[in-house]
Design brief:
14-stranded mixed sheet; alpha+beta; about 35% helix; single chain
Length: about 325
Amino acid sequence: MYNFKIIDYKSVSWEEVESFGNTNIFQTKSWINFIAQTQNGEPIIIEIKDDGNLAGYFSGLIIKKLGFKILGSPLRGWTTSYMGFILKNKSSGIEILKDFVPFVFHKLKCIHFEIMDKNITIEGCKEHSLKYELFSSFEVDLSGSVEENFYKLSKNCRRDIRRAERNGVIVKTSNDKDFVLDYYDQLKDVFKKQSLNPTYSAKRIESLIQSFYSGDNLFLFKAFNDKHQCIATGIFPSYNGKMFFFGGASYRKFQNLLPNEALIWHAMKHGIENNIHTFDMGGGGHYKRKYGGKIITVPWIRTSQYEIFSELRDLAKKLYKIKQKLF
């Protein structure tokens, strides 16, 4: 049986937590602080022991809704991918979860819990009768040289990257204060195509950049046309040899120049040159197939102490989509 101990967040030894070697950017102190700030959440790190021996840690945040406590690792809307357990034995997550859920309900006093852990399989969820939704993404293997990776791209993708270069598109690393303004203005233009508004405010991007300001784990890129106008932007957090596509945006009137293809390929090259071995494209989308990745599918597990809370969660999700369309 596993035992759990809440660690005072201010005294967490992050060096020890990250020494397990399989942590990702969404389990780091900087990212958790970013989520805590933007979601008004309470960070929580839990030590996990198996027969007195350290087995690993759990990372997540508790938020309150209508007075009720909800534990997310992560929750939808956080613009955050895989969190969950940080373990010596990656395959033990599903077994730990059996003991962890009662701990969440009775010790932490939460009425709802969600977790997306890349090391917990769909088969394991079925075996333990867990409720889940599927999160799919494309994962690109960046091992090999830049040239080798270029020829992993689809033929049409390679053609578009070359065309972007002929069109005068240049991609540069951005450290200027105008990045947030450019990114968000372009993001609004992307959503406007579907008569929608962005699902988060510009302040979230400001908080993200500020959280990683002193480190080198956040790649920000801008694409320019031959008139030096910024026409596309991209955000790529990275850590522990893995890079993620947080978000990209571009002005529709310049998409004929193919800045998006140039920008993503530039990010991939930058990753290869900085010892990144895996590029997770942050979700599905038909256009992502051309970058040479394989589809991965991860269960997003959810469980409630009372069934009605699970039903209310589904209802809130539907109402949000309706609200966006009406707005």
